[in-house]
Amino acid sequence: MEIHFSTDVRPTAEQIIELYENAGLPRPTHDIERITKMYANSNLVVSAWDGNTLVGIARSITDWAWSCYLADLAVRHDYKQSGIGKKLVWLTKEQAGEQSMVLLLSVPTAMEYYPKIGMNTVENGFIIFREQ
Q: What is the CATH number of the domain that holds 61?
């Protein structure tokens, strides 16, 4: 297995939806227009490929100078525990730059994962939840 990472290749909405469903990432995979819009308005996407198969993705919104919000991190089920997720996170940080922090909201099932890859837990955040 030779995994290729890219910031230049944007997967199709169909590829993204299939990956999210395979990875168990709770996103609106029933709504291709919403997934398309999510990616059209994200300015940093790091993808992982095994040949032509999308095996991982990190989708972020950043200003390149202060903060980078890592909105989605997904790795195909059969590729979990292979270091792809960690590599996607650290490539995101590398692309965002030394001046930017990388922050995220975790799904409950991944709360133990992020400290294991070197991220710090923060308790000084606030949220207004989406309506749908």
A: 3.40.630.30
Domains in the chain: how many in total?
A: 1
| Rounded-to-integer distance, Cα 4 and Cα 49, Å | 5
Q: Are 62 and 96 within 8 A, CB to CB?
A: yes
Q: Encode pLDDT of 20-69 as tens digits.
A: 999 999 999 999 999 999 999 999 999 999 999 999 999 999 999 999 99
The whole-angstrom separation of Cα 59 and Cα 61 is 7
User: Does 16 map to a domain?
Assistant: yes
Whole-structure pTM value: 0.92
- For 56, the enclosing helix (H) or strand (E) is strand 53-62
Task: Specify the 3-state DSSP secondary structure of 54.
Answer: strand
Q: Which residues span the domain enclosing 79?
A: 4-116
